[in-house]
Amino acid sequence: MTMPNFDVGGKETGGRERRYAGLQILRQLKRKGAEAYTVVVTQFEQFGEGDQLVTLDELRRNLMAEFTEFHLGAIYYQAADSRWRDELRHAIVSWGCAAKGANSVAMAWRSAWTGLPLEPLTA
Q: Domain residues of the chain, as ranges?
């Protein structure tokens, strides 16, 4: 996933985009030993350009190999097709993550990018 360096708003443009920011987040989670399952949801079937072009299937294989401990899969999202919901539900249920809930993923993401401890998020 590509992300801006900081929030866009007012006169701020978000700074330089960080290509593969999602991959960087996963690497931070692994480095910090975060106990959070992850699922990548994307609207893209290909990533990168030229010699560095990677298909979604290649990305799936690479992510599963590098993040075996906590990565549950990569799901192709299309607004006109609801299959992505079933795939996401299957990933969560089949790995027994339903009890942990999405909060553990949000906690780990916040921890990876802010350096804050893994504490439950409050509403």
A: 32-114
